[in-house]
Design goal:
Helix content of chain B: 55-70%
Largest interface: A-B, 124 and 125 residues
Number of strands of chain A: 3
Number of domains of chain A: 2
Order of helices and strands of chain A: EHHHHHEEHHHHH
Shape of chain B: globular
CATH class of the largest domain in chain B: Mainly Alpha
Distance between the termini of chain A: 51 Å
Number of helices of chain B: 14
Structural class of chain B: mainly alpha
Shape of chain A: flat
Strand content of chain B: under 5%
Radius of gyration of chain A: 24 Å
Oligomer: heterodimer
Number of helices of chain A: 10
Amino acid sequence: MHSSSLDLYRAGASFWHRLDARVKLIITLAYVLTVSLMPVGAWPAYVLLFAFVLSLVVASELGVWVVLRRTLLALPFVLAALPLLVTTPGRVILSFSVGRWSLPFTSAGLERFLSIACKSWLSMQMAVLLTATTPLPDLWIALRALHFPGLLVATVGLMWRYLFVLADEAMRMLRAREARSAGGEGRNGGSVMWRARVTGSMAGSMFLRGYERSERIYNAMLARGYDGTVRSLPVKPVSATQRWVAALATGVLLVLLWLGQWMR
Amino acid sequence: MSQWSSPLYQGYIRPARAVGIPGHSVASGPSPMHIPDGFLSTPVALLMWVVAIVAVAYALRRVSRDLDERKVPLFGVLAAAIFAGQMLNFSVTGGTSGHLLGAAIACILVGPWAAVLALACVVGTQALLFQDGGLLALGANIVNMAVIGVSVAYAVHGAVRRLAGDQRWSTVVAGFAAGWTSIVVAALACALELAVSGTSPANVAVPAMGGIHMLIGIGEGLITVGAVALLYAARPDLLGARKGEAAGNRGILVGGLVLAIVLAVLSPLASSHPDGLEWVAEQRGFLDFARGSPYRLIPDYVFPGISNEAIATIVAGIVGLLIVFGIAMAVAASRRRRGSAQNP
């Protein structure tokens, strides 16, 4: 299996695809911040925020299911908020007793738990939408235009460029290990210590190969006239229409934020 | 720029768990250390962003001063290696597997500042592209994994090497200790952030996160030892070259140790004293500020027409549905027009 056989960016020609990456980045960050500032249990505002992101998903012509499937990833983290169900003081709606312990489920706890889960899920959808509709080089250019430190952006860009090379290398190593240690289901060669040592050696040679590769890359870059600055084509200014889109979206989010505070 | 637009580089990879290497258990799931959005309260998330920005900016300055700033390829490829290295896993028992965060290895190989940068890039990319951790929570994730993870690993590694001298076994012990503590202390920091945010009570979050990561840390420690042993055998010059500049990094050595000790002492304290953190916060009047001011702009106000929240939700649902329906209709209409324009 080749690591690049799965695609993060989904090509398209929709209005949301054609929007400047800077505008999309700003709207995404504004949305995530709005969701985060929403008070617990402002359900009407959550519904409207969901409508906001769902509208964009529909407008991006990605397919609602594609986005939803990718958002299911953060689900396991909800476990961290589970204790809230029983530790938040409030009216007890349901009570279990396990041995000597009783677990009182409170309505306030349920509300907080559901709010956190909803907010996390809403933010996730927006982030998925951004990466599914923006080619990554555009995103790096947008980050640079928004005054992220150049060294960081260059590092991230190079990382993305070589990620697939190194990921393929990791896969080849894993395949070689499978082949040599007769790995079957739950039976991967020697003791745990031995397996850990083998994996450690793999990690070590991975870093070593990366290190040596970076030296070769640096020499190749020097040979082509690299002098410490990463150059790219001049960036087009954001058009007036797109500025209006950004302003409109931020305005809608502000109204939603205000509405959310109002509910409480 | 041309290679960027080729579909090969617009690919999609995830660490082992989603790529699903045949014959390997991928049951580990997303790392329990990447906090998604919604789990941190806004003040905590913003505070962590400030800390992250200060730390990364300082690391940037140190890197451009100490190392050659033009060595961008080293950082980039190192970050890619950390990312891809997280795919390497080994099965422990029934379904669980140990895999790598990489803070300790990176730190031992290229020093603390470059490691902070590389890990910040990895964590940032995981959040931005793979939704592994949230965008608003990214500051906290960078602080936990890149800043705390690396500085603690550096401090522990340096302290053990200093105590043990140049013995062969000290590389093993130092590597394991650096890997293990970097994971555990980062997890404790994560648990404390969740507790201060009011998402997970300290007396549950700290033992749970700490306990799980004390086990996960063993895997990290063992892999780190294996990797360092290989580097020692293959390129001792890389590890040796780092010895000279240790003097300039005494600050981070002391800082990392202090951080590790403070977190290790603070966390049990917070968990043994139920709501200990909230008590401290309340004493300082911090809690009222944290919970109250950003949220209650117009407190106790009831919308004149719709006083019932249930009705409000229903109205909001209907309005939202209409908006989405309208946009779906518009998209469908424009598609039909485009379609008919292409084949008249």
